[in-house]
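User: Please predict the structure of the protein below. I'd like the answer in structure-token form so I can feed it into my own downstream comparison script.

Assistant: Understood. Taking the following sequence of 189 residues as input:
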Amino acid sequence: MTYGTLPPVAYPPTSKLLHWLVAISVLAQAPLGLALDRVELGAWRDASYNLHKSLGVLILGLMLWRLVNRFLVGAPRAEATIAPWQRGVSSAVHGALYLLLIVQPIIGYLANSAFGASTPFFGLFEIPAGIAENADLASRLFALHGWIGLTLLALVAVHIAAALQHYFVRNDGVLQRMLPKVLGGRAVV
């Protein structure tokens, strides 16, 4: 999709905002998700689980908004200096991130529902369980949720490493397309 007569050289402000809101949420969610079953949380256990579930709902909402935004406004074309195989890898990683960041909170919600619990959203409201209680299903869904989470961590690491490589090694302006203008990002042209 284009803006005016030429493809933009940067993502529009709404795309940047949604990207960074998701990034911050995922970066907060990752250590929390890893700690839930591995660290003795004591008195903080319920609050930690509720925060994890709330962030999951937030990430799902933001990702659905990002998906609609992407279809409506598109994205800038790839930099001309990037090899076709790199564009393919980039598209695959971005596609997997979009897919898994939408599927992951849904699996978490279903696992929580099968566990017999509603899903809170920052104390503002609760989403009722969507399926009947089933301990065996809950266990399998929570295991899947964990594996998807680890896969997401790997993809996020690849995404960040690629962005930093573009900025520090290639110095080709790819990262600046998504940075806010105040941090040296490009404006949509």
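That's the full token string. The first strand starts at residue 119 and ends at 121.
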